[in-house]
Write a structure and sequence with these properties.
The complex is a heterodimer. Chain A is of the alpha+beta class. In chain A, strands 1-2-3 form a 3-stranded antiparallel β-sheet, with no helix packed on it. A 3-stranded antiparallel β-sheet of chain A has the order 6-7-8. A two-stranded antiparallel ribbon of chain A has the order 4-5. In chain A, helix 4 runs antiparallel to helix 14 and helix 11 packs parallel to helix 14. Chain B is built from 3 helices and 9 strands. In chain B, the strands form 3 sheets. In chain B, strands 1-2-5-4-3 form a 5-stranded mixed β-sheet. The longest helix of chain B is centred in the N-terminal third of the chain and has 12 residues. The chains are: A alpha+beta, B alpha/beta. At the A-B interface, helix 8, strand 6, strand 7, strand 8 and helix 12 of A face strand 3 and helix 3 of B.
Chain lengths: 373, 155
C-alpha cells in the first residue's frame, strides 16, 4: 500500500513584527511541519521614498537622507553618495580629507560588524556576546559624537570635504581604542564564534554557492563568505584604498561547506581586524590640512550621469546619479546591497527548518532601511 | 577591456541594433534596440572576452519624452563595466525581462515596474515590491501627482 507522507502545506507569516527579522520584514513561509518549502520575502514596510526625496532637494541636502538608508552604517552611505557627486563634478579632495574619511568609514564598519555579530549571537540564543559587542561599539559612537555631534546619523561627509575637522587628541583616542579592542576580538571568538552550539546552528545552514551569489548580485561579506575574493576597496579602489596593506577575507568552510551562515559571520569578524589595520595606517599618515578646502561654493554639476560604488559593511553600495545641470539631482538610483542579498534569500532557504530561517536571515546581515530605502 | 573595445565588439556583432554610444563618458554607455535586449544581454554575459556576469544595477529614468531602462553591468572576471540603456515610449513602456540571464533582475525589474510602470514581458512574478499592492500610479515618474488620500483616509 502506498502511503503519502507529504503533509499539508501551511502558510506561516513571520513578521513584519518579529525580533529576528532585523526590522520590518515579512517572510511568508510555506511549511510542511518544521520544514520550509518556500520562504517568500515581502519588503517595503520601511519605504520612505529616498529616491523621490533626492529629486526634490539640492545636492548637499541629499546627504542626511542617505544617512537614513542604512542607519547602522550611515558614514559609509553618505560617503558613497558624496563620492558619486564628486566624481560627477571632478572634485579632488586633499589627503587629510581622504584619510579622515577612511578612518571614519572603517570605524563605522567595525561598529556595524559588531552590531551584526552581536545580534546574530542573540538570534542564536546567546546574550553575553551581544553586550560585549555593544560595549565596544559604544566607544566608536563616542568618537563619532565628539567629532560631529551625532551618534547614528552623522551628515559628516560633505561634497568636497568634511563637516569639520576632528578634535585635538582624536588620533590618540582612536589608537587607544584599537589597542584595547583588538585583543577583545579573541574574547568574542572564544565566547561565540567557536562555541559548539553556535557552530552546530550555523555551519551547515544556508549554503550560498559562488555561482548563485554572483548571479543574484550578492556582494560584500556575503559574497566573500562564499569564497569569492572580491572587495571594491581592493579591486576598484576609491579614496586611495590601494595605498593600504590589508587582506580580503574569504570564507574558508572550516566547519562545513563554504558559503554557510558560519562563513558569512566569520568573514565579518575577520574583517573587523583588517579594518583595524587600515585605521592604524591611515592615522599614521594623517597630516594637518584644511577639510573645507575643496567644498564648492555652488554645487551645480554638469549635465551627465555617473555610477559610483563603494564597499559598505553590507556590500557594494552603488549610486547612479543623473544630472540635468541644475542644483538638484534629476535622478538618484541606489543599488542597495541588502536588497540583492534578500532577493537570494528564497533560493538559499529552500528546505531549511523554521529555526534555520532565523539563522539565515541573521547571517545575511540585512538592514531594512536600506532594502526599502 | 576598454569601453571603446566593448562598444566596437557590440557593434561588430549587432550592427544597427546598437543605436548610440558614448565610450568617453564618465560612465561609458551604449543605447541599444529594446527589441534585442535579451539577445544582447546573453551575448554580454556569455562572450568570453566580455563575461559580464554581474548585473550591478537596473533602474528606470523618466526623461519626460521617454523612459529609459538602465543596466549597469560588470565583469567579475575581467573587471570592466559598461552601461546599457534602452529607450521606451512613455505611454506604454514594455521590454523583455532579463531575469533568466541575471537572476538578480527579478527584484530590480519589480522595482522598476513599481516606480515607473515599465512592464517586463515574460517576468515570472511582476508585482509591486516597495509600494503596497493597491497603490495607484508610478511614484518616480516626473508627472506623478501625490495622492491626497489613501483608502478614503486623508493624508
Amino acid at each position: 500500500m502506498e502511503v503519502d507522507y507529504s503533509g499539508e502545506i501551511m502558510t506561516l507569516n513571520m513578521g513584519p513584527q518579529h525580533p529576528s527579522t532585523h526590522g520590518v520584514l515579512r517572510l511568508e513561509l510555506k511549511t510542511d511541519g518544521e520544514v520550509v518549502h518556500e520562504a517568500i520575502p515581502h519588503i517595503g514596510y520601511l519605504h520612505r521614498c529616498f529616491e523621490k526625496h533626492a529629486e526634490n532637494v539640492e545636492y548637499p541636502g541629499v546627504v542626511p537622507f542617505a544617512d537614513r538608508m542604512d542607519y547602522v552604517a550611515a558614514m559609509n552611505n553618505e560617503l558613497g553618495y558624496v563620492l558619486a557627486v564628486e566624481k560627477l563634478m571632478g572634485i579632488q579632495v586633499n589627503d587629510r580629507v581622504r584619510y579622515l574619511r577612511i578612518i571614519m568609514a572603517e570605524l563605522n564598519r567595525i561598529a556595524s560588524h559588531l552590531l551584526a555579530a552581536g545580534t546574530y549571537g542573540l538570534d542564536m540564543g546567546s546574550w553575553t556576546p551581544f553586550l560585549h559587542c555593544f560595549r565596544d561599539r559604544e566607544t566608536i559612537l563616542d568618537l563619532f559624537e565628539e567629532t560631529c555631534g551625532a551618534r547614528l546619523l552623522y551628515n559628516y561627509n560633505w561634497i568636497g570635504g568634511l563637516m569639520h575637522d576632528v578634535l585635538p587628541g582624536f588620533e590618540k583616542r582612536v589608537i587607544d581604542f584599537l589597542d584595547r579592542f583588538e585583543p577583545l576580538v579573541q574574547d568574542l571568538n572564544r565566547l561565540l564564534s567557536y562555541n559548539y552550539i553556535f557552530i552546530k546552528r550555523t555551519a551547515n545552514v544556508g549554503i550560498l554557492t559562488p555561482e548563485t551569489a554572483i548571479s543574484f548580485g550578492v556582494t560584500g561579506p556575503n559574497l566573500r563568505g562564499s569564497g569569492v575574493a572580491f572587495d571594491v576597496r581592493r579591486d576598484e579602489p576609491y579614496l586611495g584604498y590601494d595605498e593600504f596593506d590589508f587582506e580580503v577575507v574569504v570564507g574558508k568552510g572550516e566547519f562545513g561547506p563554504v558559503g554557510s551562515c558560519f562563513d558569512r559571520y566569520m568573514v565579518r569578524i575577520r574583517e573587523v581586524l583588517e579594518s583595524c589595520k587600515i585605521i592604524r595606517q591611515a592615522v599614521a599618515r594623517l597630516k594637518p590640512g584644511d577639510v573645507h578646502e575643496s567644498i564648492p561654493k555652488r554645487i551645480k554639476p554638469p549635465a551627465g550621469e555617473v555610477y559610483m560604488r563603494t564597499e559598505c559593511p553590507r556590500g557594494e553600495l552603488g549610486f547612479y546619479i543623473v544630472s540635468d545641470g541644475s542644483t538638484k539631482p534629476y535622478r538618484v538610483k541606489v543599488k542597495s546591497p541588502c536588497f540583492t542579498a534578500m532577493s537570494a534569500f528564497k533560493e538559499i532557504s529552500r528546505g531549511a527548518m523554521i529555526a534555520d530561517i532565523v539563522a539565515i536571515v541573521g547571517s545575511l546581515d540585512i538592514v531594512l532601511g536600506e532594502i526599502d530605502r | 577591456m576598454k569601453p571603446e573595445e566593448i562598444v566596437s565588439r557590440l557593434k561588430e556583432r549587432f550592427g544597427d541594433r546598437i543605436l548610440e554610444s558614448k565610450p568617453d563618458a564618465l560612465s561609458p554607455w551604449t543605447v541599444v534596440d529594446p527589441a534585442a535586449i535579451v539577445e544582447i544581454a546573453s551575448f554580454l554575459r556569455d562572450d568570453e572576452a566580455l563575461a559580464m556576469d554581474h548585473l550591478e544595477l537596473l533602474g528606470g529614468v523618466d526623461y519626460k519624452d521617454r523612459i529609459e531602462v538602465v543596466y549597469v553591468l560588470y565583469s567579475m572576471k575581467h573587471r570592466h563595466r559598461h552601461t546599457l540603456k534602452c529607450r521606451l515610449p512613455r505611454d506604454n513602456p514594455r521590454i523583455a525581462t532579463v531575469e533568466s540571464i541575471w537572476r538578480v533582475a527579478d527584484w530590480h525589474e519589480r522595482e522598476a515596474y513599481d516606480m515607473f510602470g515599465i512592464v517586463f514581458e515574460g517576468h515570472s512574478d511582476l508585482r509591486r515590491i516597495l509600494c503596497p499592492d493597491d497603490w495607484e500610479g508610478y511614484p518616480l515618474r516626473k508627472d506623478y501627482k501625490f495622492p491626497t488620500s489613501y483608502r478614503g483616509m486623508p493624508v
